[in-house]
């Protein structure tokens, strides 16, 4: 989708909005997990996976899907979840520097 609407001004404004909001949305997801709200974190991860895929960021979407799966499985350790979050945070920071 990203390449189809590459020169569409409205699409670009939506993409910029996503880029600007993504770090905050991810921080909210992390805070949910940290505060023991695993289901809320899983739901946020699911939404961010779908949104990332819709905007043409398949790797980001896959990483959010991995996090969603980890949050959904009771046998996942905190270390696994935090490692997945760290990887996502690094990718988000990298994409933010590039302007998504």
Quaternary organisation: single chain
**N-to-C SSE string, H for helix and E for strand:** HHHH
Radius of gyration: 14 Å
How large is the count of helical segments?
A: 4
Given helix and strand content, the structural type is mainly alpha
The coarse overall form would be elongated
What percent of the residues sit in helical stretches (DSSP H or I)?
A: over 70%
Q: Strand fraction band?
A: under 5%
Number of beta-strand segments: 0
Distance between the termini: 14 Å
Low-confidence stretches: none
Largest pleated sheet = none
> What's the rounded overall pLDDT mean?
90
Structure characterization notes:
With 100 residues, this protein is mostly helical. 79% of the residues lie in helices and 0% in strands. The chain has helices at 9-34, 38-54, 58-72, 78-98. Helix 2 packs antiparallel against helix 3 (58-72). The mean pLDDT is 90.
